[in-house]
């Protein structure tokens, strides 16, 4: 999907990853950006990951063609069609940015990400928050929450006009429990803002990031057990 939650999310996630990996001089890491799209998130992270190897992975040839303008290494791979084209335990970290909400079978996807990660490897996952501060107010008013969709043809009953194909939505608590049940140890959950919030409300959206359960976007750091 070409649509993402914005550079603020990418930068916050990159900082989390850089802190987890440490300097490349100690030991260069292999980072897989699974669902890299056009490579924007990985390119945003690149200045913070100097010396580490970042490989973009996507099923879309069109996305990979655009990603090649930003990334040195790109590989075609698909989570829903068997294994990714990597041996088990090859990756030190996986970036999984706003992909899980589009998947029919997120359980199998996390199984595959766990397979390609070495023991103790890092999973950096981001996804929209079903319980974002404004969604709580919208539900009380009887309005469909932002990020949720009832049709693949048009938006109905919620703010916004763009269909982005979200099939799964998570609260912070549900995401923690799901990732833990998939064989990971959750290290930290942070919040990030969403560029689609109306401009007058953006200061409030940034403020909500201090409480991840209320934030627009959930950033989760977990380690493979």
From TrEMBL:
Keywords: Methyltransferase, Transferase. GO terms for molecular function: methyltransferase activity. Gene3D superfamilies: Vaccinia Virus protein VP39. Pfam families: Methyltransf_23. InterPro entries: SAM-dependent_MTases_sf. Transmembrane segments: none annotated. One of its GO terms (biological process) is methylation. PANTHER family: TRANS-ACONITATE 2-METHYLTRANSFERASE-RELATED. This is Class I SAM-dependent methyltransferase. The lineage of its organism: Bacteria, Bacillati, Actinomycetota, Actinomycetes, Kitasatosporales.
């Amino acid at each position: 999907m070409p649509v993402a939650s914005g550079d603020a999310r990418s930068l916050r996630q990159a900082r989390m990853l850089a802190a987890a990996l440490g300097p490349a001089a100690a030991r260069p890491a292999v980072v897989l950006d699974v669902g890299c799209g056009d490579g924007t998130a990985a390119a945003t992270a690149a200045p913070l990951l100097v010396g580490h190897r970042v490989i973009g992975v996507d099923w879309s040839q069109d996305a990979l063609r655009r990603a090649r303008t930003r990334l040195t290494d790109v590989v075609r791979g698909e989570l829903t069609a068997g294994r990714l084209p990597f041996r088990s335990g090859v990756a030190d970290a996986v970036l999984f940015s706003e992909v899980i909400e589009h998947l029919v079978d997120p359980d199998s996807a996390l199984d595959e990400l766990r397979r390609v990660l070495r023991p103790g490897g890092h999973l950096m996952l981001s996804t929209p928050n079903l319980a974002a501060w404004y969604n709580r107010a919208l539900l009380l008013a009887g309005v469909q929450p932002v990020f949720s969709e009832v049709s693949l043809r048009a938006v109905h009953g919620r703010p916004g006009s763009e269909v982005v194909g979200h099939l799964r939505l998570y609260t912070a608590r549900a995401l923690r429990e799901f990732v833990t049940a998939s064989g990971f140890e959750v290290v930290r959950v942070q919040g990030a803002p969403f560029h689609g919030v109306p401009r007058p409300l953006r200061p409030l959206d940034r403020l909500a990031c201090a409480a991840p359960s209320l934030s627009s976007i959930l950033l989760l750091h977990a380690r493979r057990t």
